[in-house]
Amino acid sequence: MSKFLLILFSFFMVGCNANETLIDPLKPELDTMYFDVVQKKLSIEQDLPDQVNILVAKWFDEKVKINGFDGDMTFTVTDYKQDITQIIDGKRVDISLSFKLRLRKPLLSKIKLIEGEVSSYGTLSGDFSLSEFDTVIQNTQSDLISRLSRDLVSKI
């Protein structure tokens, strides 16, 4: 009887371990950029999901550098959209983010405005858990911020 319980318990443990998430969270690859200004400011015009808010703030604090003697820059997140749709045998998440970057140099009477939009998507099909789909959403959000960083570097 004890062997039977041991075998039953072993199958139960293997079954529990089989349900672990197979999708690894991504860490965004962010480019460092430098601006010839004295001050920088981040402005977010709407509520963002917590993960996106953290990623944008971390990117801005750690990768957006200033090294000037005059002027200021304001980076504004103007629009965030996240749509989840059903696809054949799965789900898809589409995420987009619009932004404005304003560089102001008062001594030169110069203002430069850069506007843009970045988007990313992720899909999951087959049998999956809600936590696996949550990981796909987080990975798509991380990819979105990586794309934002690359796009902005290419525009400055």
Question: Quick summary of this structure?
Answer:
With 156 residues, the chain is an alpha/beta fold.
Give an overview of the whole structure.
The chain is elongated and about 60 Å long. A 4-stranded mixed β-sheet has the order 2-4-5-6, with helices on one face. It has a two-stranded parallel ribbon with strand order 1-3. Helix 2 (50-63) runs parallel beside helix 3 (130-155). The chain is 37% helix and 38% strand. A hairpin with a 2-residue loop joins strand 4 (72-87) and strand 5 (90-105). The protein contains 3 helices and 6 strands, in the order H-E-E-H-E-E-E-E-H. It has helices at 2-18, 50-63, 130-155; strands at 33-35, 39-44, 64-66, 72-87, 90-105, 110-125. Mean pLDDT is 83; it is low at 2-21. The longest helix is centred in the last third of the chain and has 26 residues, at 130-155. The protein is of the alpha/beta class.
